[in-house]
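Re: dinuclear copper ion structure - here you go.
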Amino acid sequence: MHIHRLEKIWLVFGIAMLFIFLAVLGVGAFAMGLEPPGSHGMGAVDPQMVDKTAPFDHPGLRQIGENEYEAYMLAFAFGFSPDKMEVPAGAKIHFYITSKDVVHGFAIPGTNVNVMVVPGEVNHITHTFTQPGEYLVICNEYCGAAHEQMMTTIVVK
Ligand code: CUA
């Protein structure tokens, strides 16, 4: 069988690329210990126990710096806990949010806050509300019969 010279070059190139990709993946996974985001211990919680586990047993706002807060929130079918939260305008808010049942969303229309809330994982997003007002928080992942009623409010003062 005759194979054209250019075809041979492409064949060698393609096989070489395959081995380079596999080598990069292998070195990353086994030599450097890289893992997909969220597969680490730190962000993992037991969804069955999360409402009895600190800090999610008392969800809400905690001051951690002069103008910096942590907001722990729990999503469940069909709501968020706390169901209303006040935060100061201009402060850096680190949201930590997890679900105790199914996959939910955590989105604040008009901001770039929009994350998935997965049971067993703690998702994290930081946001600063510059304008005072009432901000609606909605679930944007279909999670059951009352999905469209799943919301809460953040009051920025
Ligand atoms: Cu929770 Cu949709």
